[in-house]
Every structure is written in structure tokens, then in C-alpha cells.
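Now for a concrete sample entry.
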Amino acid sequence: MRSRQYGPDLTPPWKRSAPVPEVPAEVDLVVEEISTGFCGAVIRCEKTAQGPTVTLEDRFGKHRVFPMEPRGFLLEGRVVTLVRPQSPAPAAPRRTASGSLAVPGARARVARAGRIYVEGRHDAELVERVWGDDLRIEGVVVEYLEGIDDLPAIVRSFAPGPDARLGVLVDHLVPGSKESRIAAEVTGEHVLVVGHPFIDVWEAVKPSSLGIAGWPRVPRGQDWKTGVCRALGWPPNTGAAWQRILGAVSSYKDLEPELLGRVEELIDFVTVGN
């Protein structure tokens, strides 16, 4: 009789473990260590006398160090072998779009009772674009009002207090305007209303980021956004125009300082003492 040929590995094929993928242990990768069930984000990899190790941080900020053994981790429910990344991590700390230092592996905080209100959807989308990471870490929710005519009633319904501060960002907040009169009516110890001088939040985006010389002047009595599209030679679709503008914003560097300072002021106000 001829003997079966198993090759260099004498283990019968039906008893061999199926191969598993090797995954680089990149910073922020979330895995589960199989033997303990500890789940966390990768903080760092180190080379030790006993072999390579990986440090994980769970959602409570607890750190654990594990050897990078074959088939030692679960990634999205699949068994994997963690390996050291080929290239070293960047020396410089990563920053968020707002310019703040990023917090590796940070989880969103439970929402605070306090809120930030902005006038419209475009304002909310722009704030999320630049400050979204900071707001989630701080647990601050941004909502939009669709105008501020009803702001006094909204503030009364919200019932601001020491643990539920309210910040409001207003477009075109200049002396003598309707917006300034409403702001003066609701501002108090636990309510802060600030604004920028622009007719619309579109103008808070630097023209250079859009590749235009400047924001056009639109004659009084005309719809401002429609007039801007016409003057710039854009299609008469303000929704598409906004997506074009928002797409040109990647960080705080694309925004005018008159908006940057006001948003930072509101975030500080609603998070003070927490």
C-alpha cells in the first residue's frame, strides 16, 4: 500500500487550522482579545524581550497590554493575527478640523443638557464640518432654528439653567438689526447669543478656499443666495451651490475669524464647569 503524502506538515488536512488574515495594528483599530474578551482601540505597539505587544484602551479609558500572538484577536467578529505596522506612526499629533488636538480612541460623550442653536441647516452643517469631533467629545448637540423670530419662545421652553446652558449663533448680528433686538431680549446668565456680521453663513467661508476673488454684492431686495449664484456664474440651484461651498471646507483655515471666534465662544460657554 502507498502511504498518504502530507508534505512537510504531518498534521492531516482535516485537523489543520484554517489560515487567518494578518492585520496591521494601526492606532485606533478596535479589536477584542480572544482569551479575556477585553475590547479596545489600539494605542501603541512595542517590541519586548518576550515578543511584540499591543496596548488597547477600552471605552472607559482603561489600558491593557497583550502579546501579539497568532489568532489572538477578533476584528468585527473574525479571528485575526495582529502584526506590527510597517511604517511608524506620525511623529506629530493629529489635529481635528478645528485645530484641536485629536484624542485617539475617544468615544462620544453622552449628550449634555446644554445646547447650541444655529439659525439654519447650512449653519449646522458647517459647524459639524469643522467642530464635529470636538462637539462629540464634549457631548454638545447642535440644533438649527430655521430663523430666530421664535427664539424668545424657544428659550422659555428650553428653560436654561446652570446645568443646561444655551448658546445661540445668529447670522448678520449687527447693531440696530432685528437680530440684535431679539438677542438682547433673551440673553441672560445661562443664555449667550453671539453672531457674525455676514448676511449668510456662506460668506463665512473664505473666497480663496472656493477659488473666487470675493463674495459678490447683491442689490437690496434680491434673494441673496440666488444673486450670488447669478453673479458667480453658477447654476441657479442654491442647494447645489451650498454643497460646492461646504465641499471646499476641510478645516478652520477655510473660515473667516469672525465665525471661528464665535463658535469657540459658544462651545466654551455651554461646557463651562463640566
Observations:
- The mean pLDDT is 84.
- The longest strand covers residues 39-48.
